[in-house]
Each structure stands twice: as C-alpha cells, then as structure tokens.
Design a protein that fits this description.
single chain, 270 residues, Alpha-Beta Plaits, ten-stranded mixed β-sheet, disordered N terminus
Length: 270
C-alpha cells in the first residue's frame, strides 16, 4: 500500500551519486494507524510512508535507517532517522516542509540537519529513552485514549517505584523479551541489556508515566516490564519477586504484555 504516486525513472529518480551528504532527522508520529516503523510491503508503516515522502521530494531513492524499530501502535516523539541525499540544490528547510505536508500530520519531521558522513541513526546511538503512560482513574479521557493505557483499579505508586530497582544495570532480559527467531545452526542472540535509569512519576492526578533509559532494548522489553510492574502495583505480585523473575530467564515468569498505544520512543541520545 502506498500513499503517494510512485517515482518514475523519467522523472529523474536515480540512486544518489557520489556528491551526497548524510542527513539526520528527528521524527514524531502517532503510531495508531501504522503497522510499526519498518517498511513492509502491502501494509502502511511509519518508515515506509516517510521513505515514500522523502523520495517524492528528493526525486531519488532513499535508504532509511532508524534508531528504534517501534512496533505496531507504538508512538514516537524523538525517533531519529538517517539517510543519504544528493547535495546538489538540497534545501533542508524545504524538505522538512514538503515531507510534513505530504505526511498529513500523523508523521512530523521536527528537525533536520546535515550530519557527519559516518553518522548512523542506529549504530551511533548511545542510549534510547522510552516513556509509557497510564491513566489510572475511574473514568477515561478521550483525549488520552490513543496514547495511554486506561486502568480503573488503583495502582500503588510506591510499589511501582520499588519494582524499578531490579532492572537497573546489565541483565539478561530473556524474561521480559519476545524470544528472537534463531536460524538452524546459529547461536541465539544475547538478550543482555544495560538499563541506565527506570522510574515512575505522577505527572497529573492519576496520570502515571514510566520512563526507562537503556543502551539498547530487545523486542517488547518495555511493554513486558510495564505489564509486570502493573501486576505488582495492583497487588497481584510482590515487588520483591521481580529480581527472581528477571533471573529466571523465562518469559512465562513475567506478567502480561502492556498494550502498545501507551508506549512512546521519547528520545535517542548520541
């Protein structure tokens, strides 16, 4: 599925020649209507839509690299992408305006700049910050429905905060990750990740925010952690159990998977 007319060779779409520059963009998006970030034929994705818009504006093919491949329904505020563009007559401000117009507001380029030639949105990143929002009130809020998990049963913020401590540091997060596919004859990838910070804040009455920063994340890691912490905060688990769950290495030992629409890739640090 494409949102734009395909670029024809007759219109001048060619692979970038040697006179190129590396471009870095910070992108925000509402993930509700997308099947994740990564381009995927036949479905609408953030990366696919953004690539189509860029190719339409730049008039040449674009190979997009992102800092984090968010899942279907997950949002982004500080997603970073990088790509090469022809330097001839490149007007970054006009590229930003044109791409934002084509994407219709669901994807927004917040800023754009020329980066160092060796900059890579994924591999140059030192850390990534995710936020998960929970609306913990008896009555929901339609203006937060797309970006927060509404829970009516009260959560104990003190327990939620205590539950964060076991995750700080370097650990094998197999208990909190979707197991990656392993090809026959290959060794499984390491699921050791280093968490730099994890905390809960009440940003408004009943509006809770979990923020976690790590050098890297594995698939569904944040949503698995949030789902398990919610079980502790609602009294279905004891916060002291979480260290044992982490050390078990078994996904079934952890809790439910929090829904994707409460999650946002907030910032990428370089």
């Amino acid at each position: 599925m494409t949102l734009f007319d395909p670029i024809e060779e007759s219109a001048g779409a060619v692979a970038p020649p040697h006179d190129t520059v590396r471009v870095r963009m910070t992108v925000a998006y509402d993930g509700s209507g997308f099947r994740g970030f990564a381009a995927n034929a036949g479905v609408t994705t953030v990366g696919g839509t953004l690539t189509e818009a860029l190719e339409r504006v730049l008039r040449h093919p674009v190979e997009l690299t992102c800092a984090g491949r968010t899942d279907a329904g997950v949002h982004g505020w500080g997603q970073v992408v990088s790509f090469d563009a022809r330097s001839e007559r490149l007007e970054l401000a006009e590229v930003q305006r044109s791409v934002n117009r084509l994407c219709g507001g669901t994807i927004v380029v917040r800023d754009v700049a020329v980066a160092a030639p060796d900059f890579d949105a994924r591999f140059s990143a030192r850390a990534r910050v995710y936020r998960y929002t929970i609306l913990n009130r008896p009555v929901g809020d339609p203006f937060l429905a797309r970006t927060s998990w509404h829970l009516t049963a009260p959560l104990d913020l003190r327990v939620l905060r205590l539950g964060c401590d076991p995750f700080i540091g370097s650990h094998d997060f197999s208990s909190f990750c979707r197991a990656p596919k392993v090809a026959e004859g290959q060794a499984p990838a390491s699921l050791v990740r280093r968490v730099l910070d994890a905390r809960w804040d009440e940003v408004d009455d009943g509006l809770l925010r979990f923020q976690i920063e790590a050098t890297a994340f594995c698939h569904q890691m944040v949503r698995s952690i949030v789902g398990t912490l919610v079980e502790a905060g609602s009294g279905r688990r004891i916060a002291g159990e979480l260290t044992a769950v982490l050390r078990s290495g078994k996904r079934q030992a952890a809790g439910q998977l929090a829904p994707p629409h409460g999650l946002c890739l907030w910032e990428v640090r370089y």
